Amino acid sequence: MPSKAKTGKKLVIVESPAKSKTIAKYLGEGFIVEASIGHIRDLPQPSELPAELKKTSVGKFAVDIENDFKPYYVVSADKRKKVTELKAALKDADELYLATDGDREGEAIAWHLLEVLKPKVPVYRMTFGEITKEAIQRAMGNLRDVDQDLVDAQETRRVLDRLYGYEISPVLWRKVARGLSAGRVQSVVTRMVVDRERERMAFKAASYWDLTGQFGAGTASFKAKLAAVDGAKVASGRDFNDAGELIARNSVHLSEELATSLAAGLQNADFRVRSVDTKPYTRRPAAPFTTSTLQQEAGRKLRFSSKSTMQIAQRLYENGYITYMRTDSSALSDEAVTAARRQASELYGPEYIPASPRVYSNKAANAQEAHEAVRPAGDSFRTPAQVAKLLSGDEFRLYELIWKRTVASQMGDAKGSTATIRLGAVAADGRDAEFSASGTVITFPGFLAAYEEGKDESRGDDDSDEARRLPNVAKDDALTASEVVAVGHETSPPPRFTEASLTAELEKKGIGRPSTYASTISTIQDRGYVRKQGSALVPSWIAFSVIRLLEQHFSDYVDYEFTADMEGDLDKIANGQAVGSAWLRHFYFGEDADPGLLSIVNNLGEIDAREINSIPITDEITLRVGKFGPYLESSAAVVDPKTGEIVENSRANVPEDLAPDELTAAKAIELMETAAPEERVLGADPHTGHTVVAKNGRYGAYVTEVIPEMTEEQIANQPVEYYKNGKPKPPKKPVKAKPRTGSLFKSMTVESVTLDEALQLMSLPRALGEDAEGNLITVQNGRFGPYLKKGTDSRSIGTEEEIFTITLEQALEIYSQPKQRGARAAVPPLAEFGPDPVSEKNIVVKEGRFGPYITDGITNITVPRATSLEELTREQAVELLAEKRAKGPVKRTTTARKAPAKKKATAKK
Predict the structure, then answer these.
(1) From the first residue on, what is the mean pLDDT of each consecutive set of 10 residues in the chain (909 residues)?
(2) Using alpha carbons only, how large is the chain's radius of gyration in Å?
(3) Segment holding 285, helix H or strand E
C-alpha cells in the first residue's frame, strides 16, 4: 500500500476557540489550529451504559471496580461532531501537536484526544504558560510526550469523585432530602461554612469598657486610648474567649461604672509623657499572584466572585494578555523578573528596585506541578494604559490588578518609623491611668507606590496605626487633655467567610486545588447549601443536616486533614510516586484495619432521619428540616387564642432570610407566638362532602380539599377481575385522586378566607364561553396576575377580583383589541441600588416575563431563585452583573437559509 503523500500541514489542537485564534497568529505557515472545546470524553451515567454492562462490575459507577478501576469512557453526545471534524483535519496533516493546558486537566484532554483520534502521524505534546510569540517559539523547542503520570492523577481524581458521590449521595437522599449531593471537596467546604456558623451560634458576647482622649502638645493634638490602670493592662476584645470569659491574666476588666468614674476623675488631671519609643518600620511586597491569591484579592478589591475572576482571567489568558491562570506557584521566570524590574525603574525611578531580584517560594500546603505565577504576558509587559482600549471594563480592572501586583513584587521595601507614646495621669480617686498612642510614618514608599495588598475582616480591636503622624514630644512633657470619655464595646463573633477568606482558608488547610476553588464555591451555592448575605457566606439549615449526617457516619470524608492528605496522595500519583489503581483499591475496598468506603456504606446501621434533621433551639422548641423547608416545632401544648383549643406540636415557619445564628431562643419564641395557623378547616363542600382547608405553604397560602382514602373494606368490595386462567386478580390499589387547589388572592389570608371564597378559588380556571370561531375563553390567576386565555393567546386583566365578575362580552372586547407588547404604562422598579461601578449606570430590579431581573440598562441577569428580593443587596447585584459581563454575549446559532432553487431555463426551439 503506498504511503500517504506529504501535505506539509501540521494540526495543532487546543481547548478553546479563543485560544486557537490567538496561537494561530504566532505559528508559521502550514499550521492548522483547531479547538476541542474542552474534554471530548467522560464517564457516562450508569443508566446510559450498554445493557450488557449494566449487570457487570462496571454497572454501578461506569468504572470497572474489579479490574483496576478502569473507567468506561464515552465520547460526549455534543462532541461527536467535533471529533468527526478533528479526524477529518488529521487526515490531511503530517504532524499532530497537542497544545492543551499544561496542568492535569489539560494533560488528560490531550490523552483523550490521542486515544480517540488514533493518529498515524508523529504526535508532539506542546505546553506554554502564556500565549505570546516568544512563549510559542520556546514551546516548539521543548516538545515532549503526553505525561502518563499526570493523566493517571487526573483519572484517579475523576474516579474518586464518582465513587464518593455515588455512594454517599443516596444516603442523603434517603435521610435528608432528594436531589442532594455529596462531594469530596464540596462537602468539606460546606462543613467549613457550617462550622463557622456553629461558632457564631455558640458565641456569647462580653461587654467591656475603656477610655479615649484627645491630647495636645503645643499646636498639635493626637488621640490616645487607655492602656493600663494601676499598672494592670486594660482588657480588650482579644482578651475574651467565645464564651464571653476573660482569659487574659493580670488584666483589669472595666465595667461601665468603673470606666465612667475614671473618666470623671481625669477631667482636671495633670497629663504628662511617660515614654517615647521609636522603631524602624519595614514592609515587604506581596508575592506575585497564584490562582488562590488572585481570587482573594479580586474579591477584596474588585468585588468579583471567584467564578467571575476565573472567567475573566481565562479570557485574558486566551487572548494573550496574562500567563496561565491556574497555578500554585508564585515564582517568576527570569524574563518576567527582568521585565518587572525594568518597568518599575522606568515608571518610579531606579531607587525603587532592590539591588538583586526578589525570589518567592510557595507557601501552599500542597503546591501542584510547576507553573509560573499569574502575571502580564510577554518578555516585556504592557502597561494598563496600553491595553485600556483593547479590554472590557472588568477585563481591564483585573489586568491592572495583576500588572500592579507583579511589578510591585520586584520593588523595594516600604520603609519608615513607628513611634509609640505612653502618657498618663492620676485620677481624683487615686487611680493611675496610662494611655497609649502609636503611629507609623512612611519615609520611603517603595512598592507601596504601585500596590498595596487588601485585608479580610478580622476580629478584635481596630488598632491600625498606619500613616498616623504623632507630635514630636519628649518624656515628662506636659499635655493638655480634652474629651476624655468612657467607651463601651462588645466582643464580636467570628466573622463569616467571604469567598476571599474561604479561599484563603482552603489553601491554608491544603484542601482541594486552587484551580477548583471557584467552581466548588459556586457549586455549594447552586446546590442550596450556602447563600450570600452581602459578601458573607451563610449556610442553609439543610446544610446543617447534611454535615451532621456526614460527621456522624462518614467522619473521615469530611475531615480536614483526611481531605488534605488525599490531595497529597494525588500529588504522589502525578509525580510517579504512586499508582492510581492501587490507591483507589485501598480507598474503596480498604485494607487490614483501615475500612474502605464500601465497608462503611454497607455497615451504616440505622440512621435516625428525624434526629439528623432536628436542632434544639430551646428546651421546648426544635428546628426541623422538612420536605418543604425549615420550621419550628414546640413540644409544649398551647391554647389557640381564637378557638380555645389545645394545640400540641404547634409549628411556625422560619423566614428564608433569617441566618442560623440569628435564630436565638428569644427569636424562636417570637416566631412561635406570631405564627399564622398552619391549617384551618373551612367546612365541607356541599356537592362532594369533602372537607375544605386553608393552609400556609412554602409558596404562599392556598386552599385545598381533603379527599378521604378508601378503607381496606372498600378496596376489598371492589368488583373482582380475573386472569385468563380464571384465577382472581388481587384488589387494585386505588389511584390517589388529585385534590382541587387554589392560591389565595393577595387580599386574603388563612384566617380570613371563607368557605364560599375557597370553593370559588378551587373552581378556577373559569370558563366564560366561546368566541365566534368556537374557541373557548377562560379566566384564571397566574404568577404575574389574573389573565384571559384563548388557545395560546393570553391577555392580562385588571385585578384578581375581576376573575369572578368579568363577562364573555368584556373578554371578547379585550380580544378585539391589538395585543399590547411593551406599551404598558411604566412600572416602577422593584428595587434600586445606585450606579454600577463599571457602567456607571443605575442598577435596578425589574419584573420580567420569567421573573425579576437585575439590569443597568446594558446588561441583564435574572435574580437567582435562591435569593429573595428582600435579601438582595447592592453587592450581590453588582457581582451578578459582573459575572454576566464576564460570560460575554450569548452566541446564538443561526441556520443559513437555503437559496431558492434556480428555475430551469426554457429550452430554445
Answers:
(1) 68 90 87 92 93 93 95 93 94 93 92 95 93 90 94 95 94 92 95 96 95 90 94 94 92 95 95 95 94 92 91 92 91 92 94 93 54 90 94 94 96 94 95 95 92 69 61 92 94 94 92 88 92 92 96 94 92 94 95 90 91 94 89 78 63 88 93 77 90 80 85 72 80 78 86 90 91 91 83 86 90 83 58 78 80 85 75 78 72 45 44
(2) 35
(3) none
The Cα–Cα gap between 448 and 545 comes to 47
Q: Give me the helix-helix angle, 499-509 and 186-202, nearest 10°.
A: 110
- Return the DSSP state at 399: H
Give ∠ CA 352-354-359 in degrees, rounded to 5: 125
Q: Which grid cell is 627?
A: 420536605
- The three cell numbers of residue 382 are 504592557
Secondary element (H or E) of residue 533: strand 530-533
Residue 296 CB neighbour total at 10 angstroms: 26
Distances in Å between the Cα of 85 and the Cα atoms of 29, 37, 76, 792 are 21, 12, 14, 42
Please tell me the chain's helix, strand, coil percentages from 3-state DSSP, rounded to the nearest 5: 35, 25, 45
State the number of CA atoms in the 13 A half-sphere of 395 facing the CB.
21
Residue 616: all three cell numbers together:
434544639
Residues known to be catalytic: 324
502 and 494 in contact (C-beta within 8 Å)? no
The alpha carbon of residue 450 and the mean position of all alpha carbons in its chain are separated, in whole angstroms, by 31
- Give CA separation, 797 vs 782, 783, 787, 801, 815, in Å: 11, 13, 5, 10, 11
The residue whose grid cell reads 388572592 is 745
Task: Give the three-class secondary structure for 498.
Answer: strand
- DSSP calls for 207-219: EEEEEEEEEEETT
* CB atoms inside a 10 Å sphere around CB 265: 18
Q: How far is CA 320 from CA 13, 291, 314, 336, 377, in A?
A: 17, 17, 10, 15, 6
Are 622 and 616 contacting, i.e. CB atoms less than 8 angstroms apart? yes
Q: What is the rounded (10 degree) CA torsion for 217, 218, 221, 226?
A: 20
**Pairwise CA distance, residues 856 & 837, whole Å:** 10
